[in-house]
Structure formats: structure tokens, C-alpha cells
Amino acid sequence: MNENVELIVNELSMQIANLSKERAIYAALATQYKHELEQVKAELEELKKEQNNKKGEEK
User: Per residue in 36-49, pLDDT tens?
Assistant: First the structure.
């Protein structure tokens, strides 16, 4: 029975390690996507400003 307990503990430890790794990957991707989204929003605002300036010049 002692071998079974050790096997279960080892398996759970591996599962915890895998979940920790997956969590780190998820956090990194979420941070990257957040940064990219902020960059795209800034670019969109810049394009809107340029478009408004062009409309103002045409009048």
C-alpha cells in the first residue's frame, strides 16, 4: 500500500507542476494580448484623429 501512496503523490505532484506551467503560459499570453490590444487601440485613435484632420481640411 505504501507504494500506491507514493505513486499517487508523485502523480499529483506532476499534475500540479503541469498546471503551474500552463498557468504561467496563460498569464504570459494574457499579458501579451493585453499589450497588443492597447497598441491597436492607440493606432485606431491615431487613425481617427488623422481622419478628422483630413475632414477639417476639406471644409
Answer: 999 999 999 999 99
How deeply is 19 buried, as exposed, middle or buried, from its count of CB atoms within 10 A (0-12, 13-18, 19+)?
exposed
Cell digits for 30? 494574457
What string of DSSP letters covers 1-59?
-HHHHHHHHHHHHHHHHHHHHHHHHHHHHHHHHHHHHHHHHHHHHHHHHHHHHHHHHH-
Rounded to two decimals, the pTM is 0.68
Kindly state the cell numbers that stand for 8. Answer: 499517487
